[in-house]
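Need a sequence for this fold. Nothing fancy.
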């Protein structure tokens, strides 16, 4: 499965069957957590060097706010704009300009309250960015319309 698609339950199980059962269980638990915190999110699935479940409010990967990334030895909960989220406790891992993640390697890691906290924060951030895009689009439409009205007819 290389192309992003909305997965059926059969797709999920088939893709996860290539991993150790404990890793698959972690992935499904994180998936359930994301869907509970963001029930309106669109879920897509693709495989590159890892299996990735990604979530956005629009269905566009460029708008994804969280990913569940499955590796042979564990799962990462990845935040596309994690560097822009408040993280006073230094929970998020990563030093890049944008992306951060939390590693999940054992069932007890699922009890980490920061998982849900950051899913909710990433969702709020995605909604805020969507509003900003929408407002920017409206103001540029208004400016274009206004300038078109001011142009003299030839």
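Here you go.
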């Amino acid at each position: 499965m290389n192309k992003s698609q909305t997965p059926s339950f059969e797709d999920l199980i088939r893709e996860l069957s290539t991993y150790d059962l404990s890793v698959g269980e972690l992935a499904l638990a994180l998936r359930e957590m994301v869907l509970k915190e963001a029930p309106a999110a669109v879920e897509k699935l693709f495989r590159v060097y890892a299996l990735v479940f990604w979530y956005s409010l629009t269905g566009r990967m460029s708008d994804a706010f969280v990913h569940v990334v499955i590796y042979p030895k564990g799962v990462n909960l990845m935040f596309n704009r994690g560097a822009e989220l408040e993280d006073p406790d230094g929970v998020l891992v990563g030093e890049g300009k944008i992306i951060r993640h939390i590693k999940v390697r054992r069932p007890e890691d699922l009890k980490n309250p920061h998982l849900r906290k950051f899913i909710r924060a990433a969702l709020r951030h995605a909604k805020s960015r969507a509003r900003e895009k929408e407002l920017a689009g409206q103001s540029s439409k208004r400016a274009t319309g206004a300038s078109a009205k001011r142009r003299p007819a030839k």
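For context: The longest strand covers residues 42-47.
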